[in-house]
Write a structure and sequence with these properties.
single chain, 2 domains, 5-stranded mixed sheet, two-stranded antiparallel sheet, 10 helices, about 15% strand, binds zinc ion
Length: about 250
Amino acid sequence: MSKMLSNITEKTRFLLDELFAFISTPRCPGCGILLDNPRLPLCPACELKLSFAGDGPVCLICRSPRGVSCNCQENRISVIPHLYYWATYSPVMRELIHQFKFEGQLKLGKYLTLAALEIIADRIASQKYDFIIPVPMLKRDKRKRSFNQTELIADTISERLDIAVNYSILKKVKKTRLQANLGREERWDNIQNAFEVSAEFNLDGSSCLLADDIVTTGATCWEATKALYTGGVSKVTVFTLVSSHFDEAS
Ligand SMILES: [Zn+2]
Ligand SMILES: [Zn+2]
C-alpha cells in the first residue's frame, strides 16, 4: 500500500515538475519551440512568416478593392465600411490568433497589433476619426474570458495614433453562438441585431474606426456598423488583424 502511495506521489511530483517546467519556459506560440530570447513573443522563424503587406481599403464583405463598385454595395442600402487588414489566415497566424484570443496571451496580441500598425498605420491615419470602437462582447462573456481581445487591439491603435477609444458607445445586446462554429448563412442570422448604441452619446456626423481581430464573412462588423449608423455615426472604417475567407476559418 505504502509502495503504491509513493508511486502515485512520485508520478504526481513528476507531472507537477513537468508542468512547472512547461509554464516557466517560454515557448513560441507559433511553433512551440523553446524561445532563446524569452522577452520576444515569437521565435525568429515565425516572426519571418509575419511579413505581410497589409491591404485596404477593400470591401468589408467581399474584399474587392474599394472604388470598384461590388455587388455587396448594390445589395445594401447603407454604405459598407472600408476594411483595412494586415494578415491573411496562414497556419501560423491561425495559431497566434488562437493563443491571443483563447489562451489569454495579451503580450502577443499587443505585439501583433503593433506589427500590423507598422504596415497599415499610415493608410488609416490619413483619415480622421473621432474615436476607436472595439467590437464589444456581452458582459458575462467578457467576465468569463477576463478580457476582450478587440479592446486590447483598440488600446494599442489608440496609443500609436493618438485617437481616443470609446468602450461604451456600442454594446452587444444579444447572446450569440461562436461565429467560428457556424456556416456562412448561419453567421449572418446569428449576429443579426446583436448590437446597440448607447443613447447617452451624441454621435451625429461622427466618424469611427471599428477594431476587430479577425474578419471572415464581415457579418459581425456589418451589424456593428448598422447599429453605429442608427446612433448617428456617419462614417465607419474597420481595422482588423486578419482577413480570412469563410472556407479557411471554418
Ligand atoms: Zn515559432
Ligand atoms: Zn463587396
